[in-house]
Amino acid sequence: MAILVARLEDAGYGVTSFGYASTSEPMEALIDQLEAAVALCCADHPEDVHFVTHSMGGVLVRSYLSQQPEPHNGRVVMLSPPSQGSEIVDAFADSPRLRALFVGPAASELGTDSAGIARKLGPVRFDLGIITGDKSLSPIGSWVIPGPDDGKVAVGRANVEGSADFLVISATHTFIMNRRDVARQVVHFLQNGRFSPTDP
């Protein structure tokens, strides 16, 4: 996320990066770590913090915000989130050993069935914009995923009920955050609560 962080800082935002060990920690532990990070950087106004996430980070932030007692006034932009789960995770469902090796405990909770954490969260109650891609560099991932996808997440599984805006671009899952047009759209949403109909 370093390139995107620099572009957000150039736009005048103070940015705190939060990394998480998705391959070794369960989701609940990551939620606790995120809560501690928000308290450390923004204790005087946690409900006004903006979040910009990539991939599973979107589900992590949704999970965190769903547990907060106060309404969240900040805006959230998610890049390629598996909002409705991932067929990639489903593919490892019958092999706990492979699932643990390639997916990890937190992402293992992102199946597309009703037991998946992403499906349990319900509609969002904060200003949310989602940008996802429909270009894949992963023929195996795209073989597993039905319909348009970015190699990791199906376009149809990226959106979430209650989102304010949804944008599909020709980008891959791994590199979507590095695009200059994505950074411009992120800034536009943080400022206006919607994406620009034409990339400024």
Average pLDDT reading: 88
Total DSSP E strands = 4
The class by helix and strand makeup works out as alpha/beta
> What's the helix count?
9
State which percent range the strand residues make up: 5-15%
Judging from the principal axes of the Cα atoms, what is the shape? globular
CATH architecture: 3-Layer(aba) Sandwich
Q: Numbering strands along the chain, what is their spatial order in the largest sheet?
A: 1-2-3-4
The CATH top-level class label: Alpha Beta
Based on CA atoms alone, the radius of gyration comes out at 16 Å
Order of helices and strands: HHEHEHHHEHHEH
Could you estimate the helical fraction of the residues in percent? 25-40%
> Describe the biggest sheet?
4 strands, parallel
User: Which runs of at least 5 residues are low in confidence (pLDDT < 50)?
Assistant: none
What is the assigned CATH homologous superfamily? Answer: Alpha/Beta hydrolase fold, catalytic domain
How many angstroms does the end-to-end distance come to? 21 Å
- What CATH calls the topology is Rossmann fold
Domains, number? 1
SSE order and pairing:
Elements: H1 2-10, H2 27-42, E1 51-54, H3 56-66, E2 75-79, H4 87-91, H5 96-102, H6 117-120, E3 127-133, H7 139-144, H8 155-158, E4 165-169, H9 180-192
Parallel strand pairs: 1-2, 2-3, 3-4
Helix pairs in contact: 2-3
List the main descriptive attributes of the protein structure presented here.
200 residues, alpha/beta, Rossmann fold, 4 strands
Describe what this molecule looks like in 3D.
It is a single chain. This protein is α/β, with parallel strands linked by helices and 200 residues long. The protein has a single domain, classed as Rossmann fold. It contains 9 helices and 4 strands; from the N terminus they run ααβαβαααβααβα. The protein has helices at 2-10, 27-42, 56-66, 87-91, 96-102, 117-120, 139-144, 155-158, 180-192; strands at residues 51-54, 75-79, 127-133, 165-169. A 4-stranded parallel β-sheet has the order 1-2-3-4, sandwiched between helices. α2 packs across α3. The radius of gyration is 16 Å and the shape is globular. It starts with a helix and ends in an 8-residue tail after the last helix. The mean pLDDT is 88.
